[in-house]
Amino acid sequence: MEFTVEKTKTPKARPTDDSKLGFGHIFTDHMFMMDWDQENGWHDAKILPFQDVPLSPAANCLHYSQEVFEGLKAYRTADGVVQLFRPEENFKRMNTSCDRICMPKIDVDFCVKALKALVELDAEWVPKTYGASLYIRPFMIATERNLGAHTSTDYKFFIIMSPSGAYYEGGLAPVKIYVETNFVRAVRGGTGHVKTGGNYAASMKAQEVAEEQGYSQVLWLDAIHHRYVGEVGAMNVMFVLGDEVVTPELDGTILPGITRKSALEVLRHKGYKVTERQLDIEEVVEAYKNGQLKEAFGTGTAAVISPIGELKYKDLVMRIHDEKIGPISQMLYDTMTGIQWGKIEDPFGWVVPVCKLDD
Ligand code: PLP
Ligand code: COI
Fold first, then answer.
1. If you measure from the C-alpha of residue 236 to the centroid of ligand 1, how many angstroms do you get, rounded to a whole number?
2. Ligand 2 center to 67 CA (angstroms)
3. For ligand 1, mutation pick of 229, 301, 337 (most atoms within 8 Å of CB)
4. Which atom of ligand 2 is nearest to the CA of 72?
5. Fewer CB under 10 Å: which end of the chain, C or N?
6. Where is the PTM N6-(pyridoxal phosphate)lysine found along the chain (predicted)?
């Protein structure tokens, strides 16, 4: 399949101050879009000016949340190279999500090609400042005009892009996380391992309650025993217990994060002791009481590496590493962002260059 390119005739003013970008509310000049129906499969692929899209009020996605999405970033190096980080991983994960939500799969190579063309067209929108980047949101929605609660016959796939700064207002400053003991996010056999909007809608109540108490996000526990650590709202989680880095195993209830996978590869590459296993919150508490809870941090595309400075579980407030970033979190942040922004060599072959800008 090929795609057409229609350039905007009215380019927008680009942001001039990267420190004021915030997250996810400014959009570039162009977007990618294609359609799927039973007769034609994927067709009508195009890059076009960023715009609103007409949608029937009866579209399936609006009622039954048949939708999936992804999140990745484009970075600008000091030499002006614009590059992506493991984009094929995102499109492969999207296909896992599509399978679970009964949506048509995409061609990973075609989508990477289309994404590269889109990023190249809007390359000037990739922020220059270290730490700021172009957040990329591929997503797919069910568009059939039908209120029947069944899988749709029609779909649309999009890629939109947003120059963004840090996801958390404090940047690399440690975040405060609330261990959720009432609400639950996912259960085995459900949809916790895929990236679909319904998971996020279902988690907003807990997020709101946590925010009211001054916490950034919640740490989810398993839905049956309210005991085993899962993940945080928009990131996976890792704990340094003594000399071991422990992260919950991929048990079908948490998202297989690409940052998680990459951080584990970096840690193993550098010789750290790393374990993916079931982790009881009581073990974290025990380690805290024994002085063995050395560090805790989240990993995610938007959140990068986010140190956790405070973890509240029931009445216990655990202050971790003096509420300062710890050495392993710092090493991971420096390595991941170093590779992404081209400051250090990429021994893993993760970055995918798109184009080079002159300045
Ligand atoms: N878990 C959830 C629920 C997320 O929304 C995200 C963000 O995408 C992650 C984990 C981290 O995944 P990744 O590292 O692929 O961005
Ligand atoms: C990402 O990190 O890409 C995410 O999708 C998190 C999102 C919920 C903001």
1. 6
2. 15
3. 301
4. 3
5. C
6. 195
